[in-house]
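Entry: Thiamine-phosphate synthase
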Amino acid sequence: MSPTGEDGMTRRVEAVDWSVYLVTDSRCGEGRPLLQVVEAALRGGIGVVQYREKQAATRTMVREAEALRELCEAYGASFFVNDRIDVALAVDAHGVHLGQDDMPVPMARRLLGPERIIGVTVHNAEEIRRAQAQGADVLSIAPVFATSTKPDHQTPLGIQGLRKLAGLCERPVVAIAGITLENAADVIRAGVDGVCVVSAVMAAPDPETAARELRRRVEEARAARMG
Ligand SMILES: Cc1ncc(COP(=O)(O)OP(=O)(O)O)c(N)n1
Ligand SMILES: Cc1ncsc1CCOP(=O)(O)O
Ligand SMILES: [Mg+2]
């Protein structure tokens, strides 16, 4: 399959730009419409958007997810749905993101087919080994730092813990939790391909500038890492 589908969206995992990965949370947008905040973030250079909505009715979710998928398409970004394989399929998302309590990867693969991307949250070496063996396409190491955005998170790994786990990953790998403009470069230097953020962009007074500045710091840190 070509990196870009007929609709202009990037479909192959190798072609996804993981640098700055926005996970949405409608409670973090300071009352602003979700689409408005995400569009500003896309203008600032977000490469991946994940629709993460825990409470809404399914009808609301498919409406919002479809609108976000179209927006991502317009900006050449990739679009994922958190947890909900049915919603991902209904709106033709690039893929889904699954945690350790969500649909197991082999079952998700049967439902999604070979071409949609499956991302998996990993907290330790055993989860990395299993996710890779089961064919996850991208790993998200969590939690790097403490965050109030997901209060039920596990004990934070810190930069040293992140570095150890990132070294075990043979697939694209990102990191999440408590990532801000101030620590994004340290996270990239620990060996991941991108940073995932909720509040650093969703709650920023100016989400476009926040996304642009995050991207600049990620690119600088990656360039320095490569020497
Ligand atoms: C990119 C990314 N990484 C981690 C998570 C968390 O997934 P999960 O552990 O299933 O928790 P919920 O987000 O479902 O509460 C994520 N969503 N995205
Ligand atoms: C979805 C998710 N999974 C682990 S932490 C987290 C939330 C991260 O939010 P923030 O970027 O605001 O710390
Ligand atoms: Mg989940």
